[in-house]
Amino acid sequence: MSTFEGFPEGKLHLTPIPDPFFSQLLPRIAHLGELKLVIYIFWRLDHMEGAFRYFRLDDFLQDENFIAGLGADAEQALNEALMWAVKDGILLQVQIKLETRQENLYFLNSPKGRAAVQAIENGTWHPAQSRAVPDNLPQETANVFRLYEENIGPLTPMIAEALGDAENTYPIQWIEEAIRIAVEKNKRNWRYAEAILKRWQREGYNARKEKPEDRRDSEETRRRYVEGKFSEFIEH
User: Fold this and answer.
1) How far apart are CA 209 and CA 205, in angstroms?
2) In three state form, how does the secondary structure of the chain look?
């Protein structure tokens, strides 16, 4: 496993973790797998939608990054971590009957989690009626500093300040596309990308469509190939 390169600069999504986790639960958790599981659950829950949010065993197994961190016998380690989390009262486990089998669901031991388990047990709600876990795992969003370093060059204090200002001014997808255009045109500098962003802000994002001068540049490039020494390999 490669060494962690450090948290990137710029705006990052923060995952909320309740204070009782640190004051009451953390001192009691002795199983490393349980600790990994609980922190992971807080992260996944923060990216879910719906009144009742829960996990099935497959929801953990489908995340290759998480499972890889549990060791060689990952499924056994996961089952042990779930057992300890239920035993310590962090998770609530309830069994539901599906068409062909029984399946365990896991809820955080929170007011909503307790309400969900009670609703299942008294028959007023069945999880099959809705799905709390999204099909796609949450993805890391683009970071303006990483985009610059990977596509243009090393950061300097002045560039970092300019990128921070840009991040507060323009949508990240604008910055990402402006950098891509700068790279494609072999203009690997922030000033060029910033000029594109300013034009989009002034003229509208649709201004990113090819300008007349861009078409002229493309036509001149094509003509050099068609009329030059490679002309015999190009259809006219």
Assistant:
1) 9
2) CCCCCCCCCCCCCCCCCCHHHHHHHCCCCCCHHHHHHHHHHHHHHHCCCCCCCCECHHHHHCCHHHHHCCCCCHHHHHHHHHHHHHHCCCEEEEEEECCCCEEEEEEECCHHHHHHHHHHHCCCCCHHHCCCCCCCCCCCCCCHHHHHHHHCCCCCHHHHHHHHHHHHHCCHHHHHHHHHHHHHCCCCCHHHHHHHHHHHHHHCHHHHCCCHHHHHHHHHHHHHHHHCCCHHHCCC
What is d(CA 191, CA 60) in angstroms, rounded to the nearest whole number? 44
Q: What is the pLDDT of residue 226?
A: 42
What domains can you pick out in the chain, each with its CATH number? Answer: 19-129 (1.10.10.10), 144-233 (1.10.10)
How do residues 198-212 score in pLDDT, each as one tens digit?
999 888 887 565 454
